């Protein structure tokens, strides 16, 4: 029997957190003399009252008894329900949009996708943009915690490879959850503050610096302006590149770094592959722009690095019209988005780890074809990759591309152009941010998409963010029976 | 040590076969009073002399000693070398094209891809179009034999699942090769004759009927006219649907049928899935055309069935401009091309069998997530699917889509538009036929593609046709060392 109480209890507490977080945009709008502060005040009251009563009603149980199935349910429920709470102020106050648009924006925020249905960001109350940034920041933090604590136990997508670094069962998770979570939150806060300070030093005002720091560290990509990073060309782009990369490495390494292991980051096999592949891609893109498009070297290098990193890490800021770089450059950027960052970061998509496992598995398969009698065990980082992990990784990857295809077909069924359907599927399933095509507005906003397309994207963003299997498992009969 | 003699011997014999086959187009052009017969006469002489001397020089060995590694080498060498022979008359006589175009056309023929670089097919000597048909027919026959006899032993892409139906080692293959091959050739010839007779009865002249029968049964898709099947609208399209489907089912079933097992075809789990999925897709496409595009029912059903089946089976005939059906219909057709026919047919792409294995593997992975302690073994057609088969199938599928992506990126690097690059990659790797985009000519011909793009496509058609791994394995150091 599934016990609804742990799910209700945690959801209730998180709803309270959402309500408390609304006090920041409320304060900003109040200070700005913008009466939109009332929307946040009412929403905060609703969230805290609602969350409080659900938490109290569900509190009568032992959290350490949570089963793996309840963890699955909780994970999906969190990302389905909290955006409902996050959408309330967007409906009560400005931009005063439909349920679909408000929920789309909140899901896009909390899944750190960053696709927006709000054109005219510059004209919104500053509190609204701060709230959008906070949604992404909270969503990013949430996913790091889930990836580090839950997914390895849930054995989703090969994450059980990291079990030995963490925990074996949920029973052992909880005692250390608070420890690890505290370390994670510290690292996340410190990096966000450093990012905001850097952005501030490079010319953003404190509001722009704060919101962009929130959406950089969460690889979310929401901006305070329709121009996105085109408004902050130059050094700020280099700074963003560095912080987007930091947001895409395993957060556990920062804790190890803080604990004195200064080389933890550089010894990580994922981080090394991530940086190496990215360096090659930036080199190729820069050469392409310099030699094929005759761009000068510095902007070519800067825009290559910025746009590649922002799409690769799934942050999704824009600084130039990348489609003007031609189909080759676009193909590189498209593929980069399908790689993604490292596991247990705020990054999305398939992720470096899985490609490393696939590479080792492919090599050992080829070896097997040549000499069927030689048994070779694929290894990663000196450790043997279990059968189980390879199976999960392969299943995940196949399912990822299958989902991408199904979502693209579903989107094209709503009447969208092929290019829009494909890039919108890509941006949703891999939680990237921008889409390209005739239906996308001049500011990159997707408000003109059909309502059905928005709901397909909402579903796709959720399953993409929750590593597909964590959601799909809820659709099996065995889950509810077992 | 790799022994080059078995490879040389078989290649020599096959070159002689090619030379003998050139006598047909020679005779046709001679009867037409077209002096292009001389190109075929000279080419035939060259092929027979060359093949004869290589075969004689390599004959001094025991064919039963052929190792698996030599089988790999032979398979790739066959599809690389024979198109060189097949290209000779296209350079010596009409259409008198460059080495690139002649080899492209011959590879596109023998891999049964059917992409053409010849605009103006109607103006070519009839012998040239007959030769193009023969190239596809021979290529289709070759692949059925390789798929049935070699791939299971080579353990490529999960084909070892079919080993128990066939043979365990190459040593056991050869004694039965002649038996099985004879049965295959009989079935292939009978079906081709039946197809030609049907086409003839439905309005084609005997030359059109013959060439189209050769390219239908091989799921090749070359036509005698730039209009392709638009020139034969109506009942001939229904006939083509039936014969394209017959060309995409496991050929071993026809042998069993001839041996008295009348239900062999209908009991095949691949065939059942193939027909079921295809029926759904035709239904959806027809409904889309009737309700969304307001087309009348009969042509909507006929054009849906014809265009879906021609792309799904990888035949690649054209009858209407399918891009005019909108992005949803186009997405369905694009996906259909990535499914493909059944194993051990002339069909290409990923194939039904692999999707069935993937489906079972996914289901058992999901079950495992829910109840980690329950061990479930995926089964297909009542038989257990071995670990080994699942690994191979997953590796193949991942590699297939990876190759598709890499080829699309490489093609876009030559400066092609994204749409052209993607559809040309799709048509090459899955051996389908048509591509769509600004660089494709009005007749569907790809003569205007950059030379570099043509060579990328040649490489892609070859590895796609030879199930990727059979070629990739040649690029491993272990293969040459072992
Ligand atoms: K994003
Ligand atoms: K074809």
Explain what you see.
Two copies of one chain form a homodimer. By secondary structure, chain A is an all-alpha fold. Chain A is 66% helix and 1% strand. Chain A has helices spanning 4-21, 23-31, 37-58, 68-92, 99-110, 126-154, 170-201, 206-217, 235-247, 252-258, 264-267, 269-292, 297-312, 326-337, 352-370, 387-413, 418-429, 451-465, 469-472, 477-481; strands at residues 379-380, 383-384. In chain A, strands 1-2 form a two-stranded antiparallel ribbon. Chain A is globular. Mean pLDDT of chain A is 86; it is low at 164-170. The interface between A and B is large, with 53 and 53 residues. Bound molecules: potassium ion (2 copies). One potassium ion binds at residues 112-114, 219-221, 314-316, 431-433 of chain B.
Q: Ranges of chain A with pLDDT <50 over ≥5 residues?
A: 164-170
Largest sheet of chain A: 2 strands, antiparallel
| N to C succession of SSEs of chain A | HHHHHHHHHHHHHHHEEHHHHH
The distinct bound ligands, ions and cofactors come out as: potassium ion
Q: What is the first-to-last residue Cα distance of chain A?
A: 8 Å
Structural class of chain A: mainly alpha
SS elements, strand count of chain A: 2
Number of helices of chain A: 20
Overall body shape of chain A: globular
What helical percentage do the residues of chain A reach? 55-70%
Tell me the fraction of residues in β-strands of chain A, as a range.
under 5%
Please tell me the overall pLDDT of chain A: 86
Largest protein-protein interface: A-B, 53 and 53 residues
Radius of gyration of chain A: 22 Å
Q: Provide the spatial order of strands within the biggest beta sheet of chain A.
A: 1-2
Quaternary state reads homodimer
């Amino acid at each position: 029997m599934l016990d609804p109480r742990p799910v209700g209890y945690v959801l209730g507490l998180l709803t309270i957190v959402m309500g408390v977080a609304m006090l920041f945009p409320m304060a900003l709008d109040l200070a700005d003399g913008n009466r939109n502060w009332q929307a946040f005040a009412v929403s905060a009251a609703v969230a805290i009252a609602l969350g409080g009563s659900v938490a109290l009603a569900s509190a009568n149980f032992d959290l350490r008894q949570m089963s793996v199935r309840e963890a699955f349910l909780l994970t999906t429920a969190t990302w389905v329900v909290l955006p409902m709470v996050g959408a309330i102020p967007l409906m009560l106050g400005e931009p005063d949009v439909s349920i679909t648009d408000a929920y789309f924006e909140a899901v896009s925020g909390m899944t750190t996708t960053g696709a927006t249905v709000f054109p005219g960001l510059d004209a919104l109350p500053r509190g609204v943009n701060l709230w959008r940034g906070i949604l992404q920041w909270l969503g990013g933090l949430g996913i790091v915690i889930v990836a580090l604590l839950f997914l390895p136990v849930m054995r989703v997508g090969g994450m059980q490879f990291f079990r030995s670094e963490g925990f074996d069962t949920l029973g052992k998770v909880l005692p250390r959850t608070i420890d690890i979570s505290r370390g994670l939150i510290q690292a996340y806060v410190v990096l966000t503050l450093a990012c905001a300070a850097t952005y501030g030093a490079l010319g953003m005002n404190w509001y722009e610096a704060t919101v962009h720091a929130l959406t950089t560290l969460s690889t979310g990509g929401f901006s305070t302006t329709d121009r996105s990073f085109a408004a902050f060309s130059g050094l700020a782009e280099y700074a963003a590149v560095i912080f987007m990369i930091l947001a895409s490495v395993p957060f556990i390494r920062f804790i190890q770094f803080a604990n004195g292991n200064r080389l933890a980051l550089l010894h990580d096999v994922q981080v090394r592959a991530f940086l190496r592949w990215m360096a090659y891609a930036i080199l190729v893109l820069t050469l392409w722009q310099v030699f094929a498009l005759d761009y000068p070297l510095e902007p070519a290098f800067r825009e290559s690095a910025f746009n590649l990193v922002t799409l690769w890490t799934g942050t999704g800021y824009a600084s130039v019209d990348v489609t003007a770089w031609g189909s080759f450059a676009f193909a590189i950027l498209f593929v980069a988005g399908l790689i993604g960052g490292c596991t247990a970061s705020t990054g999305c998509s398939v992720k470096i780890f899985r490609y490393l496992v696939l590479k080792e598995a492919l090599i050992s398969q080829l070896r097997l074809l040549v000499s069927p009698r030689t048994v070779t065990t694929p290894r990663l980082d000196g450790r043997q990759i279990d059968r189980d992990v390879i199976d999960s990784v392969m299943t995940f990857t196949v399912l990822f591309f299958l989902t991408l295809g199904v979502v693209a077909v579903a989107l094209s069924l709503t009447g969208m152009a092929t290019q829009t359907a494909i890039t919108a599927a890509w941006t949703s399933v891999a939680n990237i941010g921008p889409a390209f095509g005739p239906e996308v507005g001049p500011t990159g906003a997707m408000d003109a998409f059909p309502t059905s397309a928005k709901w397909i994207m909402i579903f796709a963003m959720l399953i993409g963010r929750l590593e597909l299997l964590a959601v799909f498992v809820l659709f099996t009969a065995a889950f509810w029976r077992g």
